[in-house]
Amino acid sequence: MPAIDPYGYRLTTSSAAAQAYNRGLLDVLRLRTGAAEHIAEAIAHDPTFALGHAALALLGHEMCAPVDVPARLRHAQLHARRATERERCHVQAIAAHIAGDPRPLVAHLRSYPRDALLLSTAVPTIAFAGVTEVPEQAWSIVEECAPAYGGDWWFSGLLAFVRQEQHRYDEAMDLACHSLAQEPGAGHSAHARAHAHYETGDHEAGLAWMDDWVTGDGARIESLSHFSWHAALHELSLGDLDAVRRRYDAQLRPGRALGCRALVDSGSLLFRWAITPAARDVPDLGQEVVSVTGRNTLERPATPFLAMHAAIALLACDDRAALRRLQAWAAAHPHPTQREVVAPLAGALDRMAAGKHSAAADELASLAPQVRRLGGSDAQREIVEETRIAALLRAGRWEEARALLDARLDRRRSRRDEAWRAQALGTAEPAGAAPLSPG
Q: Can you give the pTM of this predicted structure?
């Protein structure tokens, strides 16, 4: 009997290798620890297993797993010659994606919609940066694949994430809870629920649920730091900076948030915390995050999503030389989002680091319609908007800052945004009293 994956596709490999690969695939879909180790076990059982090599290359590229990505791709392409048409197409799609061309992956899903690893790769979520330029493209991919999955617990969580991005929060919550009832440790579903709580301003209930889940059914989650980041966003929104400090110390120091997550979760939290009104004694982002991230990730980030976080981190460190290197590298990049969004973003943040806050605010305003192309979620991308608010406040452009803050407060309640608005009205600590850079 041929080996198959959890969604019924044939695997050209031994039974032992298939079992290990499937454990790794389910770890990816649950967001559990151990995915790379299980997939490495699969190719130890069968060094000719093309999909095992390809999956490791993908995890190395997307999740900063300690993998020799070019070597794994070479092995995947070599051994795919003896595999099925679906597997050959799968390997080609991963190779093209890593090279910056998403088209083969999107085409692959039209023929093989139940290829869950590649569907997960295509959609910007907690696990992957996605392959689309704007959220609507990702939504379309998910909707087209929906008939192939029915009420599958993993797909329900993925669809829940789409629904919250579409601002259909009740549907998102229903789908997420349906999935979690079937698979209580389903990381994608928990993630979608976390976003629904945050985007509706349901901070107290969202925080209580998150703290319970991460110490219970979600305790084996790979990206646990990201769920801690979600909890910290609730605490920031509630204006509880002492709670943010406790959570950072206990759950978000880079020793706990490894690899890219140190930059994406710990680094972004430190910056957002530092520009929050009344923030004091915020840990230094350079010492805490940049020192463990690596210059290559900061100045030559693999994806536009990482580039956004790298640029913010370099601003926080007041490293104008590195911002200019990032800008030059992105401006010459073959990927249009790197050229058209990352390069001008780095330039705007360089202006801000130079104290040219009004010019920086103008450049960030012109970029605002393009920020969605960077990938990630609304909650992650809003760090760019918050940087623009900080620039406006430092430039003394109170009315424009109030307009942005009023729009945010119309979307959801936030004591943090109310405190910023008080600055813009001149009824709180003057803007700029707190340092821009953490520390």
A: 0.87
